[in-house]
Amino acid sequence: MKDIDWDALSFSLTPTDWMYVTEVTGDDAWMPGTLRPYGDFNISPAAGVLNYGQGLFEGMKAYRTAEGRLVFFRPEENARRMQAGADRLKMPPVPESVFIDAVEQVVDANRDWVPPVGKGAMYVRPILFGSGPILGVAPAPSFTFMVYCTPVGPYFKGGMTAIDLLISEEHHRAAPGGSGGVKAIGNYAPGMLPSKAAKAEGFAEVIYLDAQTHSCIEEVGAANFFCVKDGVLSTPSLTGTILPGITRASVIELARSRGYDVREERVAVEAALDADEAFCCGTAAVISPIGSITHMDTRHVFSNGQPGPVTLELYDALTAIQAERAPDTFGWLHEVPSLR
pLDDT tens digits, residue range 96-123? Predict the structure, then answer.
């Protein structure tokens, strides 16, 4: 294991030793790639990804567990989501076998960078993009699939803290028929302006409303939204404008297994603000409690600004499975093989 001050590790980039790269041209089949030293690479100024944003990415984690294993959390779901995104952006989907082999190789090669149990995780970033040169608006002639990873500290330093959010009235994340349902790189830059403005006002992030009626909750920045009322969980349904989060799907399955009524539906702003508690979820934070939501200059507080009981229950249950402090009855964990 690397000589690192793991307690000082934050959720930021720490370059590791190895990355994975494979390329394909035209309609050729993807073949397994190779490990290369982590570092810069050359790309054409006319690359499809640079000129037209033809690219997407995934975010996933590998953990050391209480059982002494190194595991991924549901990597097959990341592979399938990337395939769906590739179809939408007219790129050749990476076969699940190639995807899994790639992330396994990268994490195993950088095994010494994985934080100890309870000190964080290895964040893994697969990227698929049009790397070949193209002048007209059309799919690139060739594509690159790349994976790198970085150790990251716990998202919550010093325990879970409820965050304050602001509903954006001016900006929208996605519109029907667009690319909001896939993890396209172009979905993220437009959110930087409203996010920065919200943070300047003291909020952690923005909540986006639907682009058609401006009346229903869609997403929290780059995370999925849940609210709880009288023990019933509600989350915005997948309509093509919301990213189908893997943590979201896991929370739904986990909550239902514990007896909760979980509803995937249109979540009106008024219903969300009237909830008993609320939280957002994603790979980075797993589950993040929401202490308040400000809408039209009115601040609505949940659970006295503290994490609610359902939020805490689901967070504890999910992280216990990821760390193997509790049985993985769902079959979500995927061990990283030792390939060296």
Answer: 999 999 999 999 999 999 999 989 999 9
Strand-strand pairing, 216-220 and 60-64? unpaired
Buried b vs exposed e over 140-163: b needs ≥16 C-beta within 10 Å? bebbbbbbbbbbbbbbeeeebebb
The closest of 109, 119, 189, 114 to 154, measured between CA atoms, is 119
pTM over 0.90: yes
Active site residues: 183
Give the CATH number of domain 163-322; options: 3.90.1150.10, 3.20.10.10, 1.10.10.10, 3.40.630.30: 3.20.10.10
Gyration radius (Cα) of the chain, Å: 20
Cα–Cα distance between 24 and 94 in angstroms, integer?
Answer: 10
The CATH number of domain 6-152, selected from 3.30.470.10, 3.40.630.30, 1.10.60.30, 3.30.365.10: 3.30.470.10
